[in-house]
Write a structure and sequence with these properties.
mainly alpha, 117 residues, elongated
């Protein structure tokens, strides 16, 4: 459980860093949102796309790790108490739903970064 909390804290810090970086790039001056400057610099839209990709990558990896740990602990719990398998499985499914919901929220934030900001 300690490793899960550590990974969760690191993922949260990285996610917040990427979100703050996306704002910094969004406030830089560019000729237009869809054009490239004459000297070959990337535009704000390119930086937003990179930031969104980083957000999704970090959150998806963190979610996959969290799901793997959840399933691992569930199997371990069922092997110790087979008579409580139904209750343990139900709690695991609820936990997996919450983890997947957090990943979907990150996807929505990434889409908003690209298209709205």
């Amino acid at each position: 459980m300690k490793i899960f909390k550590t990974v969760l804290v690191i993922a949260t810090v990285l996610l917040m860093t990427v979100l703050m970086t996306a704002n910094v790039f969004a406030e830089t001056e560019a000729p237009a949102a869809d054009t490239v400057a004459a000297d070959g610099e990337n535009t704000v839209r390119d930086y937003k796309a990179i930031s969104a990709a980083i957000i999704i990558g970090i959150v998806a990896a963190s979610g996959a790790l969290a799901m793997a740990l959840t399933i691992m602990k569930t199997i371990e719990g069922i092997s110790r108490q087979p008579e409580a398998a139904g209750n343990i499985r139900g709690a695991m499914m609820l936990g997996l739903v919450f983890i997947e919901t957090a990943i979907i929220y990150a996807l929505i934030v990434a889409i908003l970064v690209v298209f709205v900001l």
